[in-house]
Write a structure and sequence with these properties.
This protein is 37% helix and 12% strand. It is of the alpha/beta class and 228 residues long. The chain has a 6-stranded parallel beta sheet. The longest helix is centred in the N-terminal third of the chain and has 27 residues.
Length: 228
């Protein structure tokens, strides 16, 4: 039987009281019957204290509440190493942001610029020969068939690509180029390289310069066409 420190202290106090009462019993000259009754009372008190101490010792200890869970910090993986660091992708297209001329090609050019930047490359839009001549180092030229050939040749580059929304078959490729160097948004069977489109999300729309507000003129033959 195991007792706690409190139960042990209770037993010791009770025992001391009992001994004290027994030592003082002759001085009071209590009758024999009273002595037996007093002894039985002390024994019952000791038994009750022992039971109380045993019950207290059997009580389970209070379990402290666990601390609040702290969320683990989110560790982002390091960005992948890029093979395009130090590379400049030159978009040779003077009217790139003129949406009245580029049509679907603009979306392809914008996707190329975004992808190049994500891979660590630098992008630049070349609009004249001075900007073309200023480019040095590892340069990749991306243009289209509508851009002046002299402007494209003004950029010193080892790799050149041409964007063609509708695809260029082998018999129509320019001299000195390969059919795989034509970039298209769809998988044409003529051997061009498909790069697809990029989803137009908020980051995509924040990349190109904002469009200028234009004036729209609506003409009608009769007033009834404008009557709801």
């Amino acid at each position: 039987m195991k007792f706690s420190h409190v139960a042990t202290a209770l037993l010791l106090v009770t025992a001391l009281v009992t001994v004290t009462n027994l030592l003082h019993a002759p001085h009071h000259a209590a009758p024999a019957g009273d002595k037996d009754a007093a002894l039985r009372a002390e024994l019952e008190s000791l038994a009750a204290a022992a039971k109380a101490g045993e019950a207290f010792a059997r009580e389970p200890p209070l379990t402290p509440k666990p601390p609040a869970a702290v969320p683990a910090p989110i560790v982002k993986p390091p960005p992948p190493k890029s093979n395009f660091a130090g590379t400049t992708v030159a978009i040779v297209k003077p009217n790139l942001y003129d949406h009245g001329h580029t049509f679907g090609e603009f979306k392809i050019f914008a996707a190329i610029m975004w992808g190049a930047q994500e891979l660590g490359a630098k992008t630049v839009v070349v609009k004249n020969r001075a900007e073309a001549a200023a480019l040095t180092g590892n340069v990749i030229v991306v243009s289209d068939q509508y851009t002046d050939d002299a402007l494209k040749r003004a950029v010193s580059a080892k790799r050149r690509y041409s964007v063609d929304f509708w695809g260029t078959p082998r018999q129509q490729v320019a001299r000195g180029t390969k059919v795989s160097e034509y970039l298209v948004p769809y998988p044409y069977p003529c051997g061009n390289t498909m790069i697809g489109f990029r989803v137009e999300d908020e980051a995509y729309r924040a990349g190109p310069p904002p469009k200028k507000k234009g004036l729209v003129l609506v003409l009608g033959k009769e007033p009834k066409y404008f009557t709801p």
